[in-house]
Known about the structure:
Elements: E1 5-9, H1 15-29, E2 32-36, E3 47-50, E4 59-61, E5 80-82, E6 85-87, H2 100-108, H3 131-135, H4 142-157, E7 169-175, H5 187-198, H6 205-212, H7 223-233, E8 237-241, H8 258-270, E9 273-277, H9 285-299, E10 305-308, H10 317-324, E11 329-330, E12 349-353, E13 358-364, E14 369-370, H11 371-377, H12 382-399, E15 402-408, H13 421-431
Parallel strand pairs: 1-2, 1-3, 3-4, 7-8, 7-15, 8-9, 9-10, 10-11, 11-13, 14-15
Antiparallel strand pairs: 5-6, 12-13
Helix pairs in contact: 1-2, 1-4, 2-4, 12-13
Amino acid sequence: MRTRKLWIYSPALSPRLEYVAGVIFSIVLGIKYEITTDRRKIGSKPAIIYSNEKVKNQFVIRPAGLLGETGVGDVSPEVSFIGEMPLFFETEGGSIPFDLFSAVFYMLSRYEEYLPFSPDAHGRFPGAASLAARGGFLRIPVVEIWSKYLAIELIRRYPVLTIRSNEYSALVTVDVDQPFAYRSRGFLRSMGGLVKGLAGVGARPADRIRTMAGEVPDPYDSFGYIEEKLKESQSEALFFFPTGDRGEHDHNPSFRDRDYGEIIRRYDRIYGSGLHSSYRSAGRIRTLKTEAERYSSITGHLPVKVRQHWLLLKMPDTYRDFSEAGMTHDYTMGYHDEPGFRAGIARPFPFYDLATERATGLTVVPFQVMDVTLRKYMHLQPEAALEVIRTLIAATRDAGGLFVSIWHNTSLNECNGWEGWRALFEEMLLMQKA
């Protein structure tokens, strides 16, 4: 009978090792495993010796030390390559040339984001500053690549082991930052916009008046188009809606707005939805909870899925707030300025809080690409943007992962510089199909 169980020996248990083993062997590879501190239990069974102890005829990974530590230290890995595979935390005397467990932990925990860094104007960690971007591997899911590499080496030593074949899938997410250009803006704000239009600033007065009168569709109302294309392509989708107060960076209508509420309920019912927590809510747990209650008053259920507006992700504070507010799935894990795999992985994974040294109940669902990144940060035309998307889909497909993209209703209206992006969206929907 073929055995599927793998033993992992370590002289000492640590929450970090338990976490990494769970992601690699349960989530990615589908290999049953058990961690032990007693080498006598192993015998001739399939095993990894994760130790600096002297052993013979065993599969060995030499620790670099990261998994035996607590807290955050001044860790600055140097990237090298085996062929096209990047690696860091190199070690000597093992069956593989690096501490793969530490490398996986470094990426998934977002270790570098706990260290001092130069934030952008909104306090965000720039993708361009990441180890993955500087090392040239941001656009490949290294956690899956390393896991597959480890599995191949293990099976060479222990042919009785088998790995799971993961199925690729895709998810379109839509952030509804501003559902209307003119509608539901209130009398004073509408009149202010009209005056600006008459003065030659902003939208043309005739367009604003006709939209407010209901004679023509609102320029930002691309929901019918999005729904049509999602249905045609049979794509899975998820919509994120804000319910915060208006501000400099929050332009959504009031959560009491009737038209807005109808949009939220419709797409919550058809595809499912989550809370798009406001810019102002970042670091303010009471504000976040208020927005969650408002969302619940519209949909009839509390939000368990969330994406932070402007991708304001601060480790570990943002995720702690989400958990405290009752959210179980976060969709913020990705960079505002660079496409790719921020945590090095192409599938949902549990969040590990470095400050408390424990895996939490929050599931992180990373995304790989956002429309705003491609156009406004990278300044790409649709044709060039499509090639970036093609590369990311191919990498995710090879990993048997989940390809997640972010779109906005305001980027799919063929105006304000977004001309040609509907064709790109439609091409992506066809390209991403399993």
